[in-house]
Every structure is written in structure tokens, then in C-alpha cells.
Specification:
Layout (H helix, E strand, L loop, with lengths): L18 H10 L6 H11 L19 H10 L2 E5 L16 E12 L2 E16 L2 E4 L8 E4 L1 H13 L5 E7 H6 L7
Antiparallel strand pairs: 1-6, 2-3, 2-6, 3-4, 4-5
């Protein structure tokens, strides 16, 4: 897929272990969350702990799903966990702002790829009717295609991995009324 959107895409590249912040910003198509904002959310989630359970011990990021969900709430959004037993055809894509996947990913130190795999947050969203993979480890956004390519190919392929999790990013009212899911 090489089609370019009519407007430029916002795409943050991977830095430290900030993939959760990058995924949020790439979904929002603007810089809304940096390390300071994410660390503040961690402190609010666990205010009385010496070692915060929602991020890396080293303070380099690696934020968990609780931080990601708290960040979305500050933007009037929420995340709905997708049950992989459901058919992707049940998604009401017009009601979904974007997707955040947690997928296994290789660990790299500069140009060196280590024989380790860790979980990594990745954003997917539509711009001008085309879905894009906005993975912060990519040099640039990668076009996926329309709804059929998103569901039949991209999401299906990733969801076959046992350690892949999918979150739907939706408005709070969409989550409340369940309109992200079709009745069929």
C-alpha cells in the first residue's frame, strides 16, 4: 500500500520505552503525552508506592495498559478490549477512532537486534478513509488499505498471535452504549 493521505500524518518514532506514549500520540495525531505526563499518570494510579507497578523500574517507560487507559480518559476517549473469539466483521468501524495493539516485538539496541522479544504498543487509525500502521518502530506510517484490508488481513494476521491484544479506541459514549459492536 503506497497511497499517501491528502494531509500529512503525525507519526512519532520510538524513543526509550515510550511506545505507549507514541501510540497514544499517533492515534490522536498530535503530541499530547510525553514521559512527564505518563509518569504523572503512574503516580496518580499508585500514589503510595515506592516502586511504581505501572512502568519500568528504570524510569524509561514501558507503561502498562492502566496508564494507557487513564491517558485516553483525559482525552474523552476510552479503550475497549477486543475479545479475539469474536468475528472482526462485528466491528462497527465508523464508531472506532483507532486501534492500539500490544504485540510481541524484537528488542533492538541501535542497529543491533537482540534475541529477545518484548511487548510493544502499536497504533492503527484511518486518515482520509485509509488505515495506517503508525508503529513507532517504523520509519514512516505504513498504509494498510480500507476496511477489508484492515479486518481480513492486518488485524486477523496479528490476532492469530497468542500474545497479541487489541484495544479499540472509542469515544466514552460509544463505549457506554456499546455501539462499537454491530448487532449481527
Amino acid at each position: 500500500m503506497t497511497e499517501q493521505p491528502a494531509r500529512p500524518l503525525y507519526h512519532e518514532r520510538q524513543r526509550l520505552e515510550l511506545c505507549a506514549a507514541h501510540a497514544l500520540n499517533n492515534i490522536l495525531q498530535r503530541h499530547a503525552f510525553g514521559k512527564e505526563e505518563m509518569d504523572s499518570l503512574c503516580r496518580r494510579l499508585s500514589p503510595d508506592t515506592f516502586v511504581n507497578p505501572h512502568r519500568s523500574l528504570l524510569g524509561t517507560g514501558n507503561y502498562d495498559v492502566n496508564v494507557l487507559m487513564a491517558a485516553l480518559l483525559t482525552e474523552g476517549l476510552t479503550a475497549v478490549w477486543w475479545d479475539k473469539r469474536r468475528s472482526l466483521e462485528r466491528l462497527a468501524l465508523s464508531r472506532v477512532e483507532g486501534f492500539i495493539m500490544n504485540i510481541p516485538s524484537n528488542v533492538n539496541l541501535g542497529p543491533l537486534s537482540l534475541p529477545l522479544r518484548r511487548q510493544h504498543w502499536v497504533a492503527i487509525r484511518a486518515v482520509d478513509g485509509i488505515y495506517y500502521n503508525l508503529d513507532s518502530k517504523l520509519k514512516a506510517p505504513k498504509g494498510i488499505g480500507g476496511e477489508a484490508e484492515l479486518c481480513r488481513t492486518f488485524l486477523t494476521e496479528h490476532l492469530l498471535q497468542s500474545s497479541c491484544q487489541l484495544l479499540l479506541v472509542v469515544q466514552r459514549d460509544v463505549e457506554a452504549d456499546g455501539s462499537w459492536l454491530t448487532s449481527a
